[in-house]
Design brief:
Blueprint: E1 2-4, E2 7-9, H1 31-46, E3 52-56, E4 71-74, H2 80-90, E5 95-101, H3 102-108, H4 110-119, E6 124-129, E7 132-133, E8 139-140, H5 159-162, H6 168-172, E9 178-185, H7 189-207, E10 212-218, H8 222-225, H9 229-243, E11 247-251, H10 258-261
Parallel strand pairs: 3-4, 3-5, 5-6, 6-10, 9-10
Antiparallel strand pairs: 1-2, 7-8, 9-11
Helix pairs in contact: 1-7, 3-4
Length: 265
Amino acid sequence: MQETGAATRTALYRRPACLLDEVTHYCSGCGHSLMHRMMAELIDELGIRETTIGIAPVGCAVLAYNYIDIDWSEAAHGRPPAVATGIKRVQPEKIVFTYQGDGDLASIGMAETIHAANRGENITVIFINNALYAMTQGQMAPTTLLGQVTTTTPRGRKEDEEGPPVKVCELLRDFERVRLLARTTVSSPRDVRNTRRLLKKALQYQIDGVGFSLIEVLSACPTYWRKTPQECNEFIENTMTDTFPTGVFKDDGKRRPFSENHSGA
């Protein structure tokens, strides 16, 4: 509380303890800054700061370790699920999450994503989907929308040439060992609250030993979408969700971990 004369003011928000006091390198309107703060809040709230390890990818979030004061490991492009698997198996008491973009997770790292999900690794995957390769100047990604203009699809993505967008949640939901799959956005206060709730559930499932979780977050790239932040949010809500509908695609958190269900089999 702060007192100024007779008036008393109460702080509604404070910087999370594990969010470092650094100036962001992200572009204005980018969703990464918001996601970093959200993750820092949840790590503090769950009391897992000293046991959490993040895996930073190749991409815009390669410098995530500059912002959240936990242990981090860098991974080669697309390899965070493999690195997370190794760390979690060696130190199963740790809370391990990957933080990946769509080029990293759904293109060069698709094999690592699929096999970690199929094995049911007890890790949390945070998938930031902005529908292009942002760090390398806006090329088409597996998640680029049909008709979307990028630096490598100047006339828009065409289904008969580049194929349709890859939908990761829909792809993984039939895998038996996947426990939580959800797609959300950070384009409105309501959606931010929902994203925070889903991220907390995913981390709690890992704490409880439930198994593999993936939370996909539709996020803006104002620089390479060539839009203002407000226009980006409108694009997500009015256009992007037509291709990538939001919602919970799978939630088997009430089941016992797969290894317990099949013990002695």
